[in-house]
């Protein structure tokens, strides 16, 4: 059983969850868009996002929790001066808000996601690099299509685009050495997860 890892200010994490019993959580295109809107509301103020992928029954994010001064409670009524926002609680708010909307539209009741989201601290440069690729490659890995770059619900094309984004686009591109190197790394490392295989659980794949 995976040990629960606290989400600490300044650190990088691979965050993931899936539907209960692998239930489909995104049935139509609008579901994906609504989830990202809620992510911008509940998560974007408190984390930097480097990569993501939404699949029919699970999601992956590579985030960095912002420094403590960015985690100060932004509510209209501050219960305690200097109180810090819990990013774990923000993730729960995100999943609960999405579940409520999903249940209303689909006339269902009960929880939609697993009770606990997975999180793993990203502790090395190699892990960060391969994790960006792993997240983008997920749709192809799961057999949803033949070329991961055709999947519309990941950060891959947003990172290559010049349109406005909440992603840490420039940081990712600089990390890989520019757009060409970013694309080449994804093309030349098809399905090679060996450097991080010990850090990816069976249920993550």
From TrEMBL:
Record's protein name: Transposase
**Which parts of the sequence belong to the Transposase IS200-like domain?**
8-138
* Superkingdom, taxonomy of origin: Bacteria
InterPro entries, per database record: Transposase_17 (IPR002686), Transposase_17_sf (IPR036515)
Q: Which organism is it from?
A: Rufibacter glacialis
Gene3D superfamilies the UniProt entry points to: Transposase IS200-like
SMART domains tied to this protein: Y1_Tnp
């Amino acid at each position: 059983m995976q040990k629960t890892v606290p989400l600490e200010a300044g650190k990088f994490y691979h965050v993931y969850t899936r539907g209960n019993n692998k239930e489909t959580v995104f049935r139509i295109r609008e579901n994906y868009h609504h989830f990202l809107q809620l992510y911008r509301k509940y998560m974007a103020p408190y984390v930097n996002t480097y990569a993501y992928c939404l699949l029919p029954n699970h999601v992956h994010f590579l985030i960095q929790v912002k420094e403590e001064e960015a985690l100060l409670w932004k509510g209209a009524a501050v219960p305690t001066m200097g109180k810090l926002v819990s990013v774990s609680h923000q993730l729960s708010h995100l999943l609960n808000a999405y579940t409520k909307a999903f249940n209303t539209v689909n006339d269902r009741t009960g929880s939609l996601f697993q009770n606990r989201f997975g999180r793993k601290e990203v502790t090395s440069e190699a892990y960060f690099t391969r994790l960006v690729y792993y997240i983008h490659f997920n749709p192809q890995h799961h057999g949803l299509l033949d070329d991961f770059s055709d999947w519309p619900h990941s950060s891959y094309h947003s990172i290559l685009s010049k349109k406005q984004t909440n992603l840490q686009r420039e940081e990712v591109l600089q990390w890989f050495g520019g757009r060409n190197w970013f694309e080449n790394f994804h093309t030349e490392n098809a399905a090679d997860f060996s450097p991080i295989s010990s850090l990816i659980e069976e249920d993550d794949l």
